[in-house]
Amino acid sequence: MLNRLLSHDLPKSRWLAAALVLIVLGLAVAPFLFPGSKALGVAAKILVFILLVASYDLLLGYTGIVSFAHTMFFGIGAYGVAIASTRMGEGWGSVLVGLGGALVVALLLSLLIGLFSLRVKAIFYAMITLAVAAAFQTLASQLSDFTGGEDGLTFRNPEWLSPSFEPFENPLLGVTVDGKLITYYLLFVAVALLFLLLLRIVNSPFGRVLQAIRENDFRAEAIGFRTVVYRTWSNVLSALFACVAGALLALWLRYTGPATTLSFEIMLDILLIVVIGGMGTMYGAIVGSVLFVLAQNYLQDLMKLASEAVAGATHSVPVLAELISPERWLLWLGVLFVLSVYHFPSGIVGRLRLPKR
C-alpha cells in the first residue's frame, strides 16, 4: 500500500525514511507540539516551500531546465486569490475564482515561454526567464490600482479560515481550534496530496522521458521523443504547481505583495533548497525545505544564545563572541550552505541514497 502511495519511489535508505517519517509527523502535530504563532508560521512556510521547491525540481532536477521565472508563477497564484477576494469579497467562491483564473494565466504564460524559449540553449533560456520575471515584478509593483503596488493586498479569508472563527468552546489538547489552525491543516492536506501527485508524475512514463531528456536530449530526440513538447509540458506542470503554492501562501498570510512572492531572493532560496536537498529527488524538497526554513528562522536566535553564553563564560576571547554575534547569522548560513555542498555534492537525499560500499 505504501509502495503504491509513493509511486514505487521508496526512500531506499533507513536514515532517509526515518527523517521523512519524523518530518511528516512533526508537521502533522506541529500546532500541538510547538504552540505559538511563530512556530506555526514556520511550519506553514515549510509546507509551502515543500510544494514550491518540489515543483521547481520537476523542472530543474528531472528535466534539466534552469528557469528564473518560477517565482512569477508563485506570485500569480497569490495575486489571483488576493485580487479576487478584494474585488468579490470574502468567501470560497472568491478563492476558487481567483485560483482558477491564476491557473489559467499561469498555464498560458508558461506555455508561451515554453514554446518561444525552449528551442534556445540553456543559458539563453535562463536569461529570458529572468527578464520575464523581472518585468512581471515591475508590473506588479506599478499597477497599484490592481495589485496594491509595493504595499500589496490585504484581504479576508472565508469565515472558516478566519482567525476569529472558533467552532469549539473548549481547547483541543490545550490548543484553541480556530480558523488559523484550520488553514494550517488545509495547507498540510493540500501539500501532501499535491506532493504525492508530483511523485506520481516523475515516476510515470512521462517522468522517465523527462529524465532521459535531462541526461541526453539528442539521444531522446533520436529515438523518437519530441523533446520540445516534453519540455514545454514540464514547464507548464511546474508552473501550475507553483501557482497553487502561491495561493496557499496567500490564504495563510491573508496578504500578498511583491516582497512575499515575486522577489528574486525567494528564487535564490528555491535554488539553494534544491541543491541542499538534492536535485532530481522529490524527497530532497522535503528535507531541504525543513533545514533551510528552520535555519532561516532560528539560526539567529541560536547564535544569540551562544553569543551570550560565550560572553558570560569568558572575557578573554572577545573575537569569538563577535564571530557568533546574531547579526552575522547570514554569514554562517552561507558557511553552512558551502559545507553542505562540499560534503553532499549530490544533495543530502542523494548522499543518503548512495549504495553502501
Question: How would you sum up this structure, described in words?
Answer:
- By secondary structure, the protein is mainly alpha-helical.
- The protein has one domain: ABC transporter involved in vitamin B12 uptake, BtuC (Orthogonal Bundle).
- The chain has 18 helices and two strands.
- The chain has helices at residues 2-5, 14-28, 30-33, 37-60, 70-88, 92-117, 122-142, 144-147, 179-202, 205-215, 217-222, 227-253, 258-262, 264-277, 282-313, 318-323, 329-343, 347-352; strands at 153-154, 255-256.
- It has a two-stranded antiparallel ribbon.
- Helix 5 (70-88) runs antiparallel to helix 6 (92-117), helix 6 packs antiparallel against helix 12 and helix 14 (264-277) crosses helix 15.
- The chain is globular.
Shape: globular
Low-confidence stretches: none
Amino-to-carboxy terminus distance? 30 Å
How helix-rich are the residues, as a percent range? over 70%
Q: How many strands appear in the DSSP assignment? A: 2
Per DSSP, the total helix count is 18
Report the average pLDDT across residues: 86
Alpha carbon gyration radius? 21 Å
CATH architecture: Orthogonal Bundle
CATH class: Mainly Alpha
Named CATH topology:
ABC transporter involved in vitamin B12 uptake, BtuC
| Strand order, largest beta sheet | 1-2
Order of helices and strands: HHHHHHHHEHHHHEHHHHHH
Provide the β-strand percentage band: under 5%
Helix and strand composition category: mainly alpha
**Largest β-sheet summary:** 2 strands, antiparallel
How many discrete structural domains? Answer: 1
